[in-house]
Design brief:
The structure is a single chain. This protein is an alpha+beta fold. The protein has three domains: 85 residues, SH3 Domains (SH3 type barrels, Roll); 56 residues, SH3 type barrels; 121 residues, endopeptidase fold (from Nostoc punctiforme), CATH 3.90.1720. 18% of the residues lie in helices and 38% in strands. It has five helices and 22 strands. The strands form five sheets. Strands 1, 4, 5, 6, 7, 8, 11, 12, 13 and 14 form a ten-stranded antiparallel sheet that branches. The chain has a six-stranded antiparallel sheet with strand order 17-22-18-19-20-21. Helix 2 packs across helix 3. The longest helix is centred in the first third of the chain and has 18 residues. The radius of gyration is 23 Å and the shape is elongated.
């Protein structure tokens, strides 16, 4: 077995160990690819009826039983030998702040620094399953990772500052609700209002009111935006601002998204560029 095969086998076995410790009630979603044509058994017993899975097929590993991976594919559940699988989901994630990596039992395995890159293999009970720079395969709490590398706040300039940007990052993944209940749930304007208040910048209650607030400088050009600006969008095209968000820099912002149902990082796609009206700059 070459080094790459050994590392792949170790990853799936460590994933298996984590899943095995989650218990029957754990909600796990760890994706794996079939390495070679392999049997899929009806039960955890290798004596049960089976069919062959083709190489390259992606399945979701939901549990480990009797040394086999319990897998799900198109709503059907079966069991496969661990040796036939390799982790498939390896999305990059970046720590929004210094964050701990835990075992399933809750033991702290290590800490990743702010901005550190980890490899996200899947989720277990809403927590990220990661391969981290501290040499551990473990779990990180929701709201600690972003799909985009954090950018440092603007230097030598007035504005909300790192305290607000740190709070913004800690709220990623919180639920969207029209009737918001911060900090557990937000709509777009209550999210902006809540975060800016932490930096000492009171904001009004609705997106339209925030967009019209003359206490803060109006920035009309996308090229002049800086981290901490409050972005104002007209999403319906009727000339009225109905959505606000907080700019992070490098074309990215954080919003409480109704369509996504949560607080998330987004970027200036063509659609958002077309619906951008202006920004308000606290400071």
């Amino acid at each position: 077995m070459n080094f790459r095969s050994m590392r792949r086998a170790a990853a799936i076995l460590l994933t298996a160990a984590l899943l095995a410790g989650t218990g029957p009630s754990a909600r796990a979603s760890v994706f794996a690819k079939v390495r070679f044509s392999a049997p899929v058994y009806r039960s955890a017993s290798r004596d049960s009826a089976h069919v062959q899975a083709p190489p390259g097929l992606q399945v979701s590993v939901t549990a480990i039983k009797s040394g086999c991976a319990q897998v799900r594919y198109k709503g059907r559940v079966g069991y496969m030998p661990l040796s036939s699988l390799a982790p498939a989901s390896r999305a990059p994630g970046y720590a929004i702040c210094a964050a701990a990596v835990y075992s399933v039992s809750g033991r702290k395995l290590g800490t990743v620094s702010k901005g550190a890159r980890v490899c996200v293999l899947g989720t277990i009970d809403g927590k990220y399953l990661v391969a981290s720079g501290c040499g551990a395969l473990g779990l990180m709490k929701p709201g600690t990772l972003s799909s985009q590398k954090p950018q440092p706040p603007a230097q030598n300039s007035r504005g909300p500052g790192e305290k607000v940007l740190r709070l913004v990052g800690s709220l990623l993944g919180r639920s969207y609700a029209v009737n918001a209940n911060p900090p557990d749930s937000f709509n777009c304007s209550s999210f902006v209002q809540y975060c800016m208040a932490a930096g000492g910048y009171p904001m009004k209650g609705t997106a339209a009111e925030q967009a019209a607030d003359g206490r803060y400088r109006k920035i009309a050009s996308l090229s002049r935006l800086r981290a901490g600006d409050v972005l104002c969008f007209d999403t319906t095209g009727n000339g009225r601002v109905d959505h606000t968000a907080i700019y992070l820099g490098s074309g990215r912002f954080v919003e409480a998204s109704k369509s996504a149902g949560k607080v998330q990082v987004n970027s200036f796609t063509d659609w958002y560029r077309q619906h951008f009206k202006w920004a308000r700059r606290p400071g």
